[in-house]
Write a structure and sequence with these properties.
Oligomer: single chain
CATH class of the largest domain: Alpha Beta
Order of helices and strands: EHHEHEHEHEHEEEHEEHEEEEHEH
Number of strands: 15
Number of domains: 2
CATH topology of the largest domain: Aspartate Aminotransferase, domain 2
Number of helices: 10
Bound molecules: pyridoxal-5'-phosphate
Strand order of the largest sheet: 2-8-7-6-5-3-4
């Protein structure tokens, strides 16, 4: 079997569109191009039907109701609407938000913006596995708290948060609970009712759907009772998110979620087997390799490891034509910033710059895994000899 090089193992960054998703989308670029709001003619009515079908597909995987789903351009926008929208809507009730230091920048930077606007934000720490303590969440609640926002699964180390426990605490204190589930929905079971989630952000391109599409779940029949709109226009999506519907994107998102709902279990069993094989092979061949994130409470397709004494950028450079992975640090053009997630779990000094994140995906094969193991081991060996 010929391998397609470089082997893509960066599925937390983005995923390829599943061919089944693309097939479902294609007619909505050309023949079915109608504006989903122009329902008085057949073109618009068909586009509208496609949007509503996709809404049902989103609802099904979350155990939500159609009126609780707002289509957005992705998880960044959903996070912004959730935090800014709740802060504005609940201004009379309070001004305090609880979140966590390992959140995605879409949450952290929005929270910082809210601080500039006079709101108070508590950034909870995590333990060495990246887990936030529900007890800390409860202790942080004050009579001014309006929102708890804790990510469902971390995009770097794959740690899965205790959502149900946090949901219970939020409910007991009458505080809204939002979760950024961009890395979780479609990868692990999420039930918004059972987990007590009031708002949830998700994204199409993390689940073999297209880029530029996502959704925000807002519990209840009246989203405007919880969230003020942050942009204005034609009043689409119950007045929360104006703008002409991205029909192909929405169809793609719905189809991607329907596939994920059916295939998640079998896919995760494969990923678990492969990440175990990879970690064992690295640990057998390379001294001191350690796993970052929680050993069990983690996304099955995530393997975040430290290769001590190796600079991750140098390793990635050697692997460039063979394996596409990610380093554990955010790189800007002028500086390499240490990852805030790795710092938060206690990695220090050179160790932060020795991390590689492998994100396995639907189209990886057994042969890919064996190839990656061989390549990584030989490249690490080469770097050690330098
Ligand atoms: C946890 C998390 N939140 C938010 C985002 C942003 O998602 P999008 O690209 O859909 O805006 C990402 C993607 O990088 C993510 O991993």
């Amino acid at each position: 079997m010929t391998l397609k090089l470089p082997i893509y193992m960066d599925h937390h960054a983005t995923t390829p569109v599943d061919p089944r998703v693309l097939d479902a989308m294609l007619p909505y670029f050309s023949q079915e191009f109608g504006n989903a709001s122009s329902i008085d003619h057949i073109y618009g009515a068909r586009a509208h039907q496609a949007v509503e079908k996709a809404r049902e597909q989103v609802v099904s995987i979350l155990n939500a109701r159609p009126e609780e789903i707002i289509f957005t351009s992705g998880a960044t926008e959903s996070d912004n609407i959730a935090l800014l929208g709740v802060a504005e809507k609940m201004a009379a009730e309070g001004d305090h938000i609880i979140t966590c230091v390992t959140e995605h920048k879409a949450i952290l930077d929005t929270a910082k913006h809210l601080e500039k606007m006079g709101k108070t934000v508590t950034y909870l720490p995590v333990d060495r596995y990246g887990l936030v303590d529900p007890g800390d969440v409860e202790n942080a609640i004050t009579d001014r708290t309006i929102l708890i926002s804790i990510m469902a699964a971390n995009n770097e180390i794959g740690t899965i948060a205790p959502l149900k426990e946090i949901g219970k605490i939020a409910k007991a204190h009458g505080v809204l609970f939002h979760t950024d589930a961009a890395q979780a929905v479609g990868h692990i079971p999420i039930d918004v009712k059972e987990m007590g989630i009031d708002l949830l952000s998700l994204s199409g391109h993390k689940i073999y759907g297209p880029k530029g599409i996502g959704a925000l779940y807002i519990r209840g029949a009246n989203p405007k009772g919880k969230v003020s709109p942050v942009m204005f226009g034609g009043g689409h999506e119950r007045g929360i998110r104006s703008g002409t519907y991205n029909v192909p994107g929405i169809v793609g998102l719905g189809t991607a979620l329907e596939i994920a709902e059916k295939e998640m279990g079998a896919e995760n069993a494969r990923f678990r087997k492969w990440t175990k094989q990879m970690l064992e092979a690295f640990q057998e061949n390379i001294e001191g390799v350690t796993l970052n994130g929680h050993p069990e409470k983690r996304l099955a397709h995530n393997l975040n490891v430290c290769f001590p004494g190796i600079e991750s950028k140098a390793l990635m450079h050697l692997l460039r034509n063979d394996v596409a992975v990610s380093a554990g640090s955010a790189c800007t053009t002028i500086s390499v910033e240490p990852s805030h997630v790795l710092s938060a779990i206690g990695l220090q000094g050179y160790k932060i710059f020795s991390v590689i994140r492998f994100g396995l995906g639907r189209f990886n094969s057994d042969a890919d895994i064996q190839y990656v193991i061989g390549k990584v081991n030989s490249c690490v060996y080469k770097l050690h000899k330098l």
